[in-house]
Design goal:
By secondary structure, the protein is of the alpha/beta class. The chain contains 8 helices and 11 strands. The longest helix has 15 residues.
Length: about 230
């Protein structure tokens, strides 16, 4: 079972989530602050990070940014209702998904499994390695390079790119991408798609403001097709 690091300052929430995950077989370590959580990363080596957005001292956004400096560890943000603005900032910082508290253990488990499935091989009838301009996508090795330089992509960014490149020139609505990439069915979660697209563009485009690869069709969604 995946090893989970939980960073949550509320003792009741922390104990409840930790107990629920342990009952499902996860190896869990928890921390009450961002600083303590970062210290636990190196020796615990989790498969996934559950990260509270509103932490004392170093908040969840700052922790997420620190982790993303040198790791593509899957990250799920835990947010309170009404934290929409901060949650979007968290997604922009590199979180792969979010869960609104309070959440049932089965919901948390489902989101964990969905995020971890994004790093599995995406099997299609496309070639294992394909080149689009200066962008090379290796589906078998799950790597992406631009002009020969490897690009580090978070799980959601990689799965989104793999899905878009599996059908070049096809337009996908936000709802379709939510269902295929995030395995969500809530229209309100369209901001997950938009935030991930912005992060992906920042990494693969020469100019994220004038994207060459991931293009927006206003009112319809996104498509992949080198200009």
């Amino acid at each position: 079972m995946p090893r989970v690091l939980l960073i949550e300052d509320d003792p009741a929430v922390r104990e409840g989530v930790e107990l629920g995950l342990r009952r499902r077989g996860h190896d869990v370590r928890s921390a009450a602050t961002g600083e303590a959580g970062l210290a636990a990363l190196a020796d615990f080596r989790p498969d996934l990070l559950l990260l509270d957005l509103m932490l004392p001292g170093m908040n969840g956004v700052q922790v997420c940014r620190r982790v993303r400096q040198d790791s593509q560890l899957p990250i799920i943000m835990l947010t309170a209702r009404g934290d929409d603005f901060d949650m979007i900032v968290g997604l922009e910082a590199g979180a792969d998904d979010y869960i609104v508290k309070p959440a049932r253990p089965d919901v948390i488990e489902a989101r964990i499994r969905a995020v971890l499935r994004r790093i599995e091989v995406n099997v299609t009838d496309r070639p294992a390695v394909e080149t689009h301009g200066d962008l090379t996508v290796d589906r078998a090795g799950l790597t992406v390079t631009k002009a020969g330089q490897r690009i580090a992509l978070a799980p959601s960014e990689l799965k989104l790119l793999l899905h878009l490149t599996a059908a070049p020139d096809q337009v996908f609505s936000r709802q379709q991408l939510l269902e295929h990439v995030w395995e969500h069915s809530y229209h309100a979660d369209a901001r997950l798609v938009d935030a991930c697209v912005r992060r992906l563009r920042h990494k693969i485009e020469d100019d994220s403001g004038a994207p060459r690869y991931v293009q927006t069709l206003r009112g319809f969604g996104y498509r992949f097709g080198p200009l």
